[in-house]
Each structure stands twice: as structure tokens, then as C-alpha cells.
Specification:
Shape of chain B: globular
Mean pLDDT of chain C: 83
Radius of gyration of chain B: 18 Å
Oligomer: heterotrimer
Helix content of chain B: 25-40%
Radius of gyration of chain C: 20 Å
Number of domains of chain C: 1
Chains: A mainly alpha (218), B alpha/beta (205), C mainly alpha (249)
CATH superfamily of chain B: P-loop containing nucleotide triphosphate hydrolases
Number of helices of chain B: 5
Largest sheet of chain B: 5 strands, parallel
CATH architecture of chain B: 3-Layer(aba) Sandwich
Strand content of chain B: 15-25%
């Protein structure tokens, strides 16, 4: 399992497009928003948590189709399926590798990009915390979507259509947590719900992803 | 160790392609499947290797004993030859990759990125992967594609060594490997007959 | 022998539904005409909402069927996963576009009703938002079905998507509720059936009877459409199977 994780990380670093692309996309989204809504800094700081969450979510989405597609094309997936690892473990490792190469850099970059959007000082901690808790769920749910569309030629668009509705609860609780903290409201419920969703999808969704992958491999 | 396949019926896209296939391969033996394109050799191999479920019938060994090599080599272009093999060695929990490198004459290429290999060299790397798995049953689909004559000899040697070590192999290939241990099975006679229209799901199949 | 699973035989299904279809369709037409005409022309105007309230006879039944269609797909998907009856998977496939259209009708009538009542076509109210999300789930489900060529693979994948989607749809419902407490009145129809509705928040009895008739009509309409579309799916699948059979010879 560690070998698989190391290989995926190595591939992401060497082939490029792992760390870099997601972050660049995130930055572009953050830069484009003020062009869209106007340079009013009061308004920007009000919508900052939502924009940052949305940007992270979209950046995450961008690299989902690479989770399985490359291994599918070159036949590695067939071999992994016959390897002495359960497919559930492979799926989980893949999700972890995706989070490490996409989710974690986004979490780390978020406070820097938050400056661009005038995020109130009180918001930095909750925002980073919510992203840290929430982005693993995005990766795991995305892995399920990637497993669903792995055999399809034009799976990218379909993948977004399938995954985005599944992201709704995570987005709501994540952004809500940051927003409520800034406004001085009680953010504990959102925090707990967000953590609950993340734990639940990490525990349960790999079984669905593995089942889906088995169907797609045959 | 013996691989027994009895009355295996395999499907592709929900349609039966081969019906009631039975054969046995003992340790130290190789079985070469023959048959025209599209008859279902790949489907049969994938089913035997446990990658897809059979409609009927049984395979005596479970997939934990098998290593499957398909048309694609499962090679990552950004990684070097050594790294590719080491990865599979780690996944399958086997030790040294040196024998595999040696068997397919890859030592000189060991540090080269796999993306810089020629098609034949890639194929050799893909086959070296089978050695690395340490599995007793090799299930291989057209293993000699894009290999030159000397590489085919290397491959035949590797299979022979594998068989001598108590392994067995199931191959689909059109090339005569010159293996004394190999028997040939023509899968043509197993071609599935169109199903009766009065089945339970007869309105479909 | 007379098990319910016999109807999972495609031929038997087609034969049975062929006999039922005229009756179900007639019932659907009758109930809908009765319910809608009664509702539109023979009920008093609501003292606060005026005549706009009458859109309820389309809005509520279609909203109900939008959810029930998904529930039916969920059951059919489970049957496919457990018993692997092809008809079940095809029925789920057949129900999806109907459910999606019901969702659109519910959303559209809701917007038309909301304009005079709340002064806005759209409000990010939990119920409205949930329906919009439900619609997205329908879209994804339909798109996945149409994207995969192999029938059995498509059936397997969409079934699992339906199961996972159901959990996430419920989760979204609660998330959205938490996110925004809205304008929409609570589901008051069932309470109206149980009690004599006399407080203004409830749908009172005068409105309830035609509403229930209309709901029954929509249900029959849904059943008729599912029968019809499942038959079509079975025949389309049979056509593909016959073509494949020809290739085998």
C-alpha cells in the first residue's frame, strides 16, 4: 500500500499537473471573482469564505479524472486488481494520494489567497480548519466518481455532473463553518457535521468505489 | 499444483462467447490457446485470471495464485525501469528484481525512464513484471506482440525457467515459442451457440 | 410457481403490462381530469392566497411523484443488485426521465406560485433548493445510463450511483435545512388528511379531496408511463440482443 502511495506521489510530482495545476486553477478562480463582482472590499470579504471553498472544490474536481484513467489506459489497474491488495485498499490509497497532491496544497494555499479577498482576520483559522477537515471528503467522493467513469472515453464532463451534487453537503457545512465563525455565530454544529461527513465517507465510500471499479474492470 | 478449468462459459458485453471450456494445466506445463481474432481468447483469459465473473463453470485456483498480463504493459513513463519493477515487487511482496532484469536483458536499460523505451523494450519490461510477481500461474494475452526474434527467445527462456520452477502458464499467442512443455488448445470448438429464445430472459438473449 | 418474480421475465412483463396499460391510463386520465377540474373550478379561493392557490393541484402531486420516482428507482436498483432481474434495472432506467420531468414541473409551478405569494420567482429556500439538487441527481443518473454502452455494466453502475446518491440526497436535504430556514410552508397535506384542517396553515378539507384525487391521478400517470417506457426499454434491449445474436452466427 505504501508502495502504491509512493508511486502515485512520485508520478504526480514528475509528470507535473499534480501540485501545480490545481493550485494555479485555484489562484485563477480567486483572481477572477473580483472581476466578476466588482472591487468592493466589503463585499469581497463577505463572500471570501464561500469563494475560497468553491475555488478549492473546483480545483479538486479538475484532477479527479486522473485518479484512475491513467492506470486504466496503461493496464496497471488490471494488475493492481489481481495484486494481493483488496481493491478497497487500493481505492483508499488512491484517494489519499489525490488528497496529498491536490487537497493539502489547496489547504495550505488558502490563507495566502484569502488575503486577495480581504478575508477578516477572525476567518483564517476556521477557514483553514474547515478546508483541512472537508477536503479529504472531496477526494474520497471524487474517487467514487472517478471509479464510476473510468471506462468512458469522454468521462470528464460526466464526472463533474456526477460528483458535484455529491459535494453539496460538504460545501454547505464547510463554507457555513467559516462564515459563522467570522460572524461570531456558533460554528460547532457545522464543524461536527463536516467532520462527521468526512469520517463517514472515508469509512464507507471506498466499498462503493471498489464495487464500481470491479464492474468497470470486467 | 494444477489449474483445472471446468465447463467455463464466458461472456463479453453480456453475450456468451465461449461455452463449456474445460482444460487442465499441471505444474511445469504451459497451455497455448489458439483461435481466430474475436473468438474470445482475451475474455477467457480475463475470466480465468478472476478479472471478470464467469457465467458458469469453475476455475480451480483462485486469483491470488495468478498474474495477468494483457495487451497493455502497465508501465509508467515517468518512472525508470527499476522503479517500475520495484513498485510491482513491493505490491506483490516479492524481493529482488535482479532476476527479472536479467531474464529480459534489461540491465543496461535499468536507469532509463520507461517513457524512453522502444515498443519492444517496453514489452520486455511488461513481461519482466510477470517474473517479479512471484505468482505460480502466468496468464498472458499475446505476450510476444512487438518482440523481435531474439526477444521472443528470451521470453521462451523465461517461460521455461518459470515452468521448471514448478509454475504453469496459460498463453494466447500465434507464434510458435518452441516450448517442448507447451500443449496447444484450439478454442474454436467452444464457440458459444446462440442461446435458445425461450430462456427465462429469452426476450433479451 | 406464482411468485412475484415471474413478472421479472421480460415477456411476461410485457404481456401483463399490455393488459394493464389501457386500464391504468384510463384511470390516470379520469382521476386527473376529475381532480384538476374539481380543483380549478369547484373550490373556493383561499382567503389569503386568492385563486393562485389552485396551482397546488399540479404542484403538490408532481412534487410528490418527483420524490416517489426516485424511491421507486432505489427499490428497483436494489432488486437488480440482489436478484439481477433485467426488467428491474430497465424499469429504474425508465422511471428516471419521468421523475426528472416531475421535478421540473414541481419547480416551475413552484416558481409561478411563488411570484404572487412571496414576490419572487426563486428563493433559496430549503425545499426549493433540495428539489433543484434532486434534479441534478436525476441528470447525473440519466447521463450515466446513456454514457455506458454495455447494458449490464450500466445497470450495475447506475444502481450503485442510485444507492449512494440517495444517501447524499438525504444528507443534502438536512444540510440545506441547516443552511437556510425558508419561506415554504411545511408539508401540510398529510396532516390535512388526518385532521379536519381548520387553521390557516393547513390545507383544509375543501381543498384536500380534489388534491388527493389529483395525487392519485399523478400516481396512475406515473405507473402508466413507467410501464410504457419499460416496455420500450425491453424492446430496445431485445433489438440489441438480436443484433448481437446475428453477429454470433
Amino acid at each position: 500500500m505504501i508502495a502504491l502511495l509512493m508511486r502515485d506521489l512520485k508520478l504526480a510530482i514528475r509528470a507535473g499537473g499534480g501540485f501545480g495545476l490545481g493550485l494555479a486553477f485555484f489562484l485563477i478562480v480567486v483572481v477572477l471573482v473580483p472581476f466578476g463582482v466588482g472591487p468592493n472590499s466589503g463585499l469581497l470579504s463577505k463572500i471570501a469564505p464561500g469563494v475560497l471553498w468553491l475555488g478549492a472544490l473546483l480545483a479538486c474536481l479538475l484532477s479527479l479524472d486522473r485518479i484512475f484513467a491513467l492506470d486504466w489506459e496503461d493496464g496497471s489497474l488490471d494488475l493492481l486488481a489481481t495484486a494481493p491488495l483488496p481493491l478497497e485498499a487500493i481505492v483508499s490509497v488512491k484517494a489519499l494520494a489525490h488528497w496529498l497532491t491536490t487537497g493539502l496544497p489547496l489547504v495550505l494555499a488558502a490563507p495566502v489567497f484569502a488575503i486577495l479577498l480581504n478575508l477578516p482576520t477572525a476567518g483564517y483559522g476556521p477557514l483553514v480548519l474547515s478546508l483541512l477537515i472537508g477536503t479529504p471528503a472531496l477526494s474520497v467522493i471524487g474517487t467514487f466518481g472517478a471509479a464510476l467513469t473510468v471506462g468512458l472515453k469522454r468521462g470528464g464532463l460526466l464526472l463533474s455532473l456526477l460528483v458535484l451534487p455529491l459535494y453539496v453537503p460538504t460545501l454547505i457545512f464547510g463554507a457555513e463553518m467559516a462564515r459563522r465563525s467570522i460572524e461570531g455565530l456558533n460554528a460547532q454544529t457545522s464543524l461536527l457535521m463536516l467532520a462527521g461527513i468526512t469520517c463517514a465517507v472515508i469509512a464507507l465510500l471506498p466499498f462503493a468505489s471498489a464495487a464500481v471499479l470491479r464492474v468497470n474492470l470486467r | 499444483m494444477e489449474l483445472n478449468v471446468s465447463d467455463l462459459t464466458v461472456t463479453r458485453g453480456g453475450i456468451k462467447v465461449l461455452e463449456d471450456v474445460s482444460f487442465a494445466v499441471k505444474a511445469g506445463e504451459a497451455l497455448v490457446l489458439r483461435g481466430p481474432n474475436g473468438i474470445g481468447k482475451t475474455t477467457l483469459l480475463r475470466t480465468v485470471a478472476g478479472l471478470q465473473p464467469a457465467l458458469r463453470g469453475e476455475v480451480s485456483l483462485d486469483r491470488e495464485q495468478m498474474a495477468y498480463a494483457g495487451h497493455a504493459d502497465g508501465i509508467k513513463a515517468p518512472l525508470s525501469v527499476t522503479e517500475n519493477l520495484e513498485f510491482w515487487a513491493a505490491v506483490f511482496g516479492t524481493g529482488s528484481i535482479a532476476p527479472a532484469l536479467q531474464a529480459f536483458d534489461l540491465e543496461a536499460l535499468a536507469a532509463r525512464p520507461a517513457g524512453a523505451l522502444s515498443a519492444g523494450q517496453k514489452r520486455r519490461l511488461g513481461l519482466a513484471r510477470m517474473v517479479v510477481t512471484g505468482r505460480p500461474v502466468w496468464v498472458m494475452d499475446e505476450p510476444t506482440v512487438s518482440l523481435d526474434t531474439s526477444a521472443v527467445q528470451l521470453f521462451a527462456e523465461a517461460v521455461r525457467a518459470h515452468l521448471a520452477g514448478g509454475g504453469l502458464a496459460l498463453l494466447a499467442t500465434h507464434i510458435d515459442l518452441g516450448l517442448a512443455e507447451a500443449r496447444v488448445l484450439d478454442v474454436g470448438p467452444f464457440k458459444a451457440k446462440p442461446p435458445a429464445l425461450e430462456d427465462f430472459d429469452g426476450a433479451f438473449l | 410457481m406464482s411468485s412475484i418474480w415471474e413478472y421479472a421475465n421480460p415477456k411476461k412483463f410485457i404481456a401483463t403490462t399490455d393488459r394493464l396499460l389501457p386500464w391504468v391510463s384510463a384511470l390516470a386520465l379520469g382521476l386527473m381530469v376529475l381532480g384538476l377540474v374539481w380543483g380549478f373550478f369547484f373550490t373556493p379561493d383561499d382567503f389569503r392566497q386568492g385563486s393562485t392557490v389552485k396551482i397546488i393541484y399540479i404542484h403538490v402531486p408532481s412534487a410528490m411523484m418527483a420524490i416517489n420516482a426516485w424511491a421507486m428507482m432505489l427499490v428497483a436498483s436494489l432488486v437488480w443488485i440482489v436478484r439481477r432481474h433485467h426488467v428491474s434495472a430497465l424499469a429504474a432506467r425508465a422511471a428516471a426521465p419521468i421523475g426528472a420531468v416531475m421535478t421540473v414541473i414541481a419547480l416551475a409551478t413552484g416558481a409561478i406560485w411563488g411570484q404572487p405569494m412571496w414576490g419572487t420567482w426563486w428563493e433559496w429556500d430549503p425545499r426549493l433548493t433540495s428539489f433543484l439538487i434532486l434534479f441534478l441527481f436525476y441528470l447525473g443518473y440519466i447521463a450515466l445510463w446513456s454514457a455506458i454502452e454495455d447494458d449490464d455494466t450500466a445497470a450495475d453502475l447506475t444502481s450503485i450511483l442510485c444507492l449512494v446518491g440517495s444517501v447524499f440526497a438525504l444528507l443534502s436535504r438536512y444540510a440545506v435545512n441547516f443552511w437556510n430556514q425558508g419561506l415554504h410552508q411545511g408539508a401540510s397535506v398529510l396532516r390535512a388528511g388526518a385532521l379536519a384542517g381548520d387553521t390557516e396553515e393547513r390545507v383544509s378539507n375543501v381543498f384536500a379531496t380534489p388534491l388527493f384525487i389529483s395525487m392519485a391521478g399523478f400516481l396512475m400517470l406515473f405507473i402508466a408511463l413507467v410501464f410504457l417506457r419499460t416496455q420500450t426499454e425491453i424492446r430496445a434491449r431485445r433489438m440489441r440482443a438480436l443484433l448481437a445474436r446475428e453477429r454470433m452466427q
